[in-house]
Amino acid sequence: MIGLLLPSIRATLVLAIATGIIFPCIITAICQVCFPFQANGSLAKQGDKVVGSELLAQGFSKPEFFHPRPSAAGSGYAGEASGGTNYGPTSRKLILGDQSFAGIKQEAENYRKENDLAKDVLVPVDAVTRSASGLDPAITPANALLQSKRVAKARNLSESQVQELIKKYSEERYLGLIGEPAVNVLRLNMALEALPKGTRQAE
After folding, report:
1. What pTM did the predictor assign?
2. Residues 121 and 163 sit within 8 Å (Cβ to Cβ)
3. Most CB atoms closer than 10 Å: which of 18, 47, 129, 135?
């Protein structure tokens, strides 16, 4: 019995040390050397102050900022409560909403109103639907462009200045195939904040 027990204990200890200590330490060291920004949470800073992570959406709501997708994470944009609505595409509540939940129709009306758009303007799908995580950090360039007039007005900038920033921070499909074109909302808003005051240009 002892002859079987001792080898089992030794094997368990060796595997625990190898997979629970040595391997994680090696991977951590490689990541810190090769990918330090990503390994430390893709944290965005203004000066020495951390203002968020490029991987997590924040609830920007002021008119001078670009707004992210709606969120169903906790009470909204809660990193510790990532999740979607779990409503199917034919759900009446998802489409029409109710007093406790803003549906797609309500989100579209609110979006048009806050961005001073006509009632018949088509709204990008990412502007009125929640992502599966509720924390999608990006919006489509089309969504950003429809918000550019509001942002430009609130910041006393020309629309062309704002649209140039959108173009600059837009990312294409990975390898031209994977995903969709997107703009990271936090990076875009940080670029806006970095613009010198009183830089409005003529249209």
Report:
1. 0.81
2. no
3. 135
